[in-house]
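Lab notebook, bench 4. We co-purified these components, and the gel suggests they stay together. Before we commit to crystallization screens, I want a quick structural picture of the whole thing.
Request: model the full complex, all chains together.
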Amino acid sequence: MSLEGMRGKVGILGFGMSKFGPDLSRQDYTHYAAVAYTKALKNSGISPDDIENVVYGHYNPLFRGQIMGDIYVNETIGMELMPTLRVAAGGATGAAAIDAGVTYALSGRADIVLVLGFEKCSDTYNFESGEGISEALKAISFSADTVWEESLGFTAASSYAHTVNAFIAEHEGHPDDEEASIIAVNHHNNALLIPEAHCYGQEEYTVEKVMASPMISSPFRRGHNCQISEGAAALILITEQKAKEMGVADRVVWITGIGCSTDTGMVGLRPTISEYRCGTIAMHRAYKTAGIKNPQKELGTVEIHDPFAHVVYMAIMEVGICETWQETSRLIRDGFFARDGRLPMNLSGGLIGLGHPVGATNIAQAGWLFLQLTGQAGASQVDFSDKRKTAALKGMGGPGDCYCYGIVMQY
Amino acid sequence: MALSVKAAREIAKRNNIAAELILKAAAVEISGGARKDDVLRVPFRIGITLNRSMAHASYFFREIRDNGIFYGGKCPACSHVLFPPVRPVCLRCIRKGELVEYEPLKIGTEVEGTVVAVSKLVRGTSKDLGKGVRYPCLVKVDGADNAHWQFVLPTENREPEVGARVKSVLADQEDRTGEVGDFSFRLM
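Here is the predicted assembly.
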C-alpha cells in the first residue's frame, strides 16, 4: 500500500499561520484566515490562480454564533466559485482537513489544494459573570451527546480524565504528576521560540511550577492543559507531477501515510475505557501506508495532539514509539522527547504552547513539521543532521476523543 | 505581548541560538484590524428555544420523572442491555446488519452498579461552572453492557473510586424535569 494517486504523491509546498492567541478581537476571523492564507501563498511561491480546490477546517459555530463561517472566509480570500469543502472533527478538525485535501489531490481532481483552518472563540462571554472561558467550555460541551451527557455538565477535561485515570490505574500510577509536568514544560517552552504561539512572551515553565499549579480536574493541573485560542493556519498541498512541472519538487515534504479511526463518542459504550483504541488504529494505518515499521528509530520528530499532558504519555505508546509504560517513563525522564533529545516532540509547542484554535491546530502542527524538515523554522529550528527527515502527527478530538488521525511525512 | 531584550537574551542563551532571532520574532505581532482600544463589542445571544423530543427514550425519562422507576433497554433478539437506553436500536445486532429496537426493561425504584471510571473535578474554571469538588464517573449498572456518565456523590469519609459500589439517588419529585439530571448515584 502506498499513498500515490493519479498524479503521484502529494506533499506540502507551503505553510502560513496567523498569530494564535486568547483574543484576536482586533481582527475578524475572516481577517486572520486571510493572514494565514497569504503567508502560505508567499511561503509556497504559488499564485492564487494556481489553487484548484479549498478545504476548510472549522470546528464550532457556537463560538461565534455563525454557521458555515467558511463561506465568509472563502469570499474574503477571493475563492468564490472554487470547489470547497468544510470539515469538522472536534480537536482533530485540522488533521481531518489535511486528510480531505490530500484525498482531493490523490484523486486527480486538483493538483494544488489550499487547506485552511480557523477558529474564533473570544466572542464567548457571559455578561452576568463577566467571564469568557466558561462560555467557550459550554460551547464545546455541546459536542457531547446533549440528551445523555452534555446536560449533566460534561466538560472535555472530565471526559479525558475518565480514560486517563483508568490508564493510570492500570499502569502502576503512571504517568505521575512529574512525568506529565516534564511533558508540559517541553511543549510550553518550545512555543517560546515561535512568535505566533499563544504562549509566546510568557515565562518559561519549570517542572516545579507546573506541579505547583492548581488542580483543575484530577489529575490535570492548569499547567498540564492546552490553551483556548483563536487563529488560523494554512497549508498548500501539491501533487508530485505538478511539483515537477513547476520545478519545486525539492521543496516539498511528502505526505507518505494517513490513517483515520473514529470510535464511539460515548466512552461508556466502549469495551475498554483505559485506552484510545482509535489512536492506535489510526497511527498504525498511517504507518502501514508509509512503510514505517519502527517509529522510535525511523521518526526524526513528532507532533502529538496534547490537550492535556497525560494524554501525550498515552499517545507515546499509541503511536508505537514505546511498547511499555516503563520505557515511556524512562524516555520522558531521560529527555528523549526534549528539544535536544533524540526524538524531539511538539517543537511547535503543541496545544499547550502554540495554542488550540481548534480548526487550525493540527494544520499548524503539520506546518511546523514542514518548516522543521525543510530548515525554515527560524529560532525554533533543530539540527536534523543526525535524524531522519521523517515525521509523524497524531491529531485527535471529539467527545471521548473519538476522532483520530495519523499523518506521516517525509522530506 | 512584547518580549523584553533581557528575556530574549536569556531564552536565546538557554537554547544556544542567536538573540537576534528571538528579538526579530518578538517584533511580529498582530498587524491590521481595529486599534486595540477601538474594538467595539456588542451583546449577542442565540435566542433559539428548543422543545426537545426524547423520542425512543421518552418512557425512560417519563417513568423516572413521574413514578421514580428506572428502565433500561433490552434487545429482544440477543439480550444486549443498555442502561440508560441511550440508543434506539441494538448496538450488537446492527453490526450484523439487523435492525432490532430495544424494548423497555423494568428495573425498579433503584438501580445499583459499579464505578468503572472516575474524574475528580477539583475546582470549576469559573464561577459560572461552579466551584467545589464533583465526581463525574462512568457507572456500569448491574446487568448492563455499557457504562453511564453520571455524577457520584461522595460520603463524608470516602471519595468515589474505580470498583466502588453505588446506588441511584432520585432528585426530589418537584425538582425532576424529565432529563438525565433527575438522578445521580451515591456510594454504598
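Helices of chain B lie at 5-14, 19-26, 58-67. Worth comparing against the SEC data before the next meeting. Chain B has three helices and nine strands.
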